[in-house]
Predict the structure.
Amino acid sequence: MFKNYWKTAFRSVRNNKFTSFISIFGLAIGLTAGILILLWCQDEKSYNQSIKGAANIYRAVPGFMSGGNKSYFPTVPPALGYVAKQVPGIEKSGRITTNWNEMVLGYKDKVFSERNSAFIDPALFDVLDIAFIEGNRQMPFHDNRSIVLTEAYAKKYFGNEAALGKVITRQDKKESYTVTGVVKMPHNSQVHFDYFIPFNILNESAAATAAGTNGPTGEDADWNNYDFEMYLRLTPGTTPAAVAAALTRLQKANFSDNITRTLEYHLQPLSQVHLYNLDGSDGLITMVRIFTWVAFVILLIASINYINLTTAKAAQRAREIGVRKIIGAGKRQLFFQFVGESVLVFLMAMVVSVLLVKLVFPMYNALTGKALSFNLFDTAVLKVLCITMAVTLVASAVYPAVLLSSFRPLQAIKGRFSIGRGNHLLRKLLVVSQFGFSVVFIICTIIIGRQLNYIRQMNLGLDRENVFRIDLKNMYGRYDAVKDALLREPSIAGVTAAGQDVLQVSSNTTTNDWPGKDPAKPQLIFTLPVERDFLSAMRIKLVAGKGFSGTAADSNYFILNEAAIREMGLKDPIGKSFTLYQTKGIIAGIVQDFHYLNMHAKIGPCVILWKPQWLGQLYVRAAAGHTQDALAAVQRVWNNYNPGYPFAYVFLDDVYNKMYTADQRTGALFKVFAFIAIFISCLGLFGLMTYTAQLKTREIGIRKVLGASVFSVTGLLAKDFIRLVVIAVLIASPVGWYFMNSWLQNFAYRSPVSWWVFPLAGMFALLIAVVTLSFQAIRAALAKPVKSLRSE
């Protein structure tokens, strides 16, 4: 029986080559898009999922009140990690923090400048279930001059040799580190560092000065520096809320200041760290859900093609079905026969799809910024294939099989069969759905593109053009001499320095005060230490007061942005008292708000302070058209002061663009998916138009004999389809507006959704539909009427 089903299915595919090609190719394109999207979604959801005991692992997240709002941070003071063992229910905990220092490491003749490293508690390797290829996870470091490398970095330095016990030299500090471990770090881990050094190194200098004293020293005693992530493994059955409350009480018992008064910890499950925000609200999971729906919609569009073409040709198979029923075929047998035809078409499409996936996979990885792999026999890939197979088969096979198996045999044989008005209506509804989805994609693509363009062109309040940044390194302490040397170069238009990346300021504090401040309401203020010419060099507008002069008096002067003045509620603020940390000074100036964070965040209060001892980054503005000359000049100065370091720089334009990489990839993906959705929709429309022209061959011939023009015949064939596309545009426009308006809420600064976007998207979709329909309609209209009437 099944053999007969397959024979009939092959015969049907062979006898309907054109329809079968459109169905198979449309399904293959849809399946390819669906597989690629779902592989991306699956990868995002896989972060931290393979860790043993992940259900009991949490990240400590402190929350504070600031200006009437609650702010959350992913980092804690290091002292909390030291005393965390006192809390019942914590089985093990560990701290980790980025090593911001560049390290020049060498082994034999290999020398590399490394930046991506971390200070780590030994216990954290066990908490996060990090696998050791070489070494012992229970004792990862032998002393403070030990180093643990990732597998990739072990190969980078030692090739295929065993790394354990080998010595890496830190050439910029004349120190040596012994390799005591090599770890395998999966790409979907929360920890993204290339090598690890002992956390206890941070305590060395403090331990030396506090020799003979009891209790913690150095970072282990620091309750004020929130720069350390802390992960906890709880004993099974422990309530996370109880542990969080205990951590809150513990910190308040050991330390008290303005910010600690409103402190409240909560524990974020490790499984949510990658996809959710610190407060538990949706983060990246929103994009995962959106793209899951995108995959479903594209598969649905491809399935609609198959349904429409199959039901449109139902009348041509009516006699075949009638004969089969008369000679004894039951409805159940016919149902499975037509499902078998659908399965055959799907399997052919799947084969084509797998080949397409393999072909485009390198380009897809480049587009998404991932390093996904496509192994047909991998469990994750098979899971995605099964999901797409089930969705597509259910969507595309069941209804045509039910329709075709329900024909009445006598009416079908006599040629009086009609597929019914309801089925015609359903086909129209499906065409509207297809193009409706496509129009939504077009609207999303236009609005995302406008927002990204808005970000690129927006006035940041500072001028990033032709500005590049380098680390001071050994130039620290000799800044004035370096600056004078660089300003003598005609290719350099300005030089300044700051303590942080001016586009991604991270340092903030609530240790501040001013006259009239409510002591019950701490105010979080971002802090940016700079040198005297920072405002003029970065072209930040001073709207009131004065800047820095470079004299000792500047240490008591503070320059605030407009947002800080608004939050503080000050009138005539120039000259008024302001305290930051332990320094009591005055407000010397006010600058226009500038973007020191990305566009997702609203500009908040920021204070600029003169702190020569806190400078770490040099900013150089090249004269227009002389960028390469400026780089060469800076490199010459660099080589004089930093001979042990390779010269490395980054342009602020590149830093700025990198901040929106995820948004740019979202826009690029939507462009690709919009094209795929439109292409599949047009493919189906082309197939339906071809079939309609075949059905109306005789009518077209008669009309042409009676004098109908090519234009009128073309309009006759295409008008019903164009009407459906117009309806799709009208329905899709408010849907597209809703989705994009919701997406734009992620940006504190956004481009308005202009009314013309929707007519433009509609006109674009209509133009594509008209071009698709016209090709086949004009071809039918140009056919000689004698041929069509003779064949009838």
